[in-house]
Amino acid sequence: MDNYLAGNTNSPIPFPESYPRDIISGNGAYVADASNNQYVDLWMGYGALLHGHQHATEKKTITQQLSNGWFFSYPTKLETDLAAKIHSLIPCAERVRFSTSGSDAVAYAIRAARRFTGRKAVLAIDGGYHGVHENMVSNTATLSLEMPDLTLFNDNEMTVAKILSKRYACFILEPILANNGCVPPDPGFLEAVRKACTDTNTVLIFDEVVVGFRTSVNGAQSMFGVTPDLCTLSKAIAGGLPLSAVCGKKDIMEQFLPSGEVFFAGTFNGSPLSIANALGVIESLETTYPYQEMDQFREQFSQDLLKLARKHDVKLAIQGATSMMSLAFGCTSYRHGVKEANANPKTYACFAEYMAKEHRILLPPLYTETIFLAPAHIAIKDNLLDAFDKGFKWLSANTRS
Ligand SMILES: Cc1ncc(COP(=O)(O)O)c(C=O)c1O
To answer: Which CATH class is domain 14-43+290-398?
Structure first.
């Protein structure tokens, strides 16, 4: 069939050849294509599907909200309720605003920080990702770039020195570097940047688009005991429906129109369908989601994979936290991001291609991306290990990792 998508795809990521191009459904740990081939999904909606596909409670909430209507241009009770819920859970969330995508939320947060400080420059992490807007995209061919200055994750000295220059409106980072090898912060790193930001009136933004709600219902900021000035949330918050939030200190947040002058708008901001689902998702996270079990599962799964890799002489590093993990071939450890470790992208791509083709297991298609585990993966752990065993054997025979 002719494909009229630009570049034959709706994504900048080059998917391996053997990946299906016609997914039509998802259930639990699996997605299925139009010919009903089932694939294990290890990417889980870029992390949005904390519970896996078609979680029964979410399905019920969404169906119920559909019967009440799914879009209004007036203030809703749902948005007030969700703002109150986020305020009660996320330490920095004195005030909350809803938007639609992670990129929107980051753009609003940076805009507010610039107004608050009267400074323009932005400091970010080398290899980090914060969305598609012009202030943050580092490898685009557009001409209208305002690139952030960059520092290294887990490099206290370089990062603190840059912040102390008092040049920056904000320092934005993921508290766990989920977008570049899933690197947890070294003890003291977040504390050091918090202090430097406070001392220089630099707005500290934690981009918790990926890690918020995945690490803990109180956000990664509570896990590490470091409270930023602003934080962005998305993905897991609404179980795969489009929703994001900016939250943070009252005096920064109240700058948004209409209480202040900073522009913040969006037709689909605070979609009732997404917010209804978010309220249900958060309730399940507070009551039944097995955070501890997922953490133990990821830890054991990582150890088992490393053992298999060693058995086949495959050089592999695995890093992760809670239900996220990253595979890096060709190195054994890294602290600043997987790129810095010279992890081998080609080996990863070959491996992903093989796993999809021979075992119908879909890894994230790019080596910097993160594997997201769901509770439904626990029951198929042995099948996964068996397939990875064969995969590492194949890799060892066919490539140099
Ligand atoms: C940390 C982080 N921030 C922002 C974004 C942008 O979110 P979106 O793709 O919803 O615009 C992403 C997307 O992956 C992300 O991982």
So the answer is: alpha beta
